[in-house]
Design a protein that fits this description.
By secondary structure, this protein is α+β, with helices and mostly antiparallel strands. The chain is built from 3 helices and 8 strands. The radius of gyration is 14 Å and the shape is globular.
Length: about 140
């Protein structure tokens, strides 16, 4: 099964896209400029589903991995290289899960933060990332 199809199919189970997420092939007007910032030859493939916290902090699930911008800096990790996914707070202290706004994703000894809006979007991103990446690690 095509990875893009799997992402979209699983996203529908979480009632996505929602208020703070959208499909990359049909971005709302104000978000088109954001997607243009994704490098043309990114190592994570084509964006499929985008989660937005604000214009400088957003993440996307792509055909080969997860990418996004945190404080304006582009980051990406290929699904097959993910070793751990966890919630993240600004001081590394666990918060009320409804207030978390980013995921900590580990790969090859480095940990990066992927941003989204708190609550349901964060949990959807977390679950989708686990469901998409774990089978690809085998």
């Amino acid at each position: 099964m095509d990875v893009a199809y799997r992402i979209i199919h699983k996203a529908q189970k979480y009632k996505l896209p929602g208020a703070n997420s959208f499909l990359a092939d049909a971005p709302p007007g104000q978000f088109r400029r954001m997607l243009v910032r994704v490098p043309n030859k990114s190592g994570v493939g084509d964006p499929v589903l985008v989660f937005v916290r604000d214009s400088e902090n957003w993440s996307f699930l792509a055909t080969k991995g997860i990418g996004g911008y945190t404080s304006g800096e582009y980051i990406e990790i290929v699904y097959s290289e993910i070793t751990e996914i966890d919630g993240f707070s600004s001081d590394n202290v666990p918060l009320n899960k409804r207030k978390l706004h980013s995921l900590s994703v580990s790969s090859g000894g480095r940990t990066v933060k992927f941003e989204t809006s708190p609550g349901e979007d964060l949990f959807a991103l977390w679950n989708l990332l686990r469901q998409i990446s774990w089978p690809l690690r085998k």
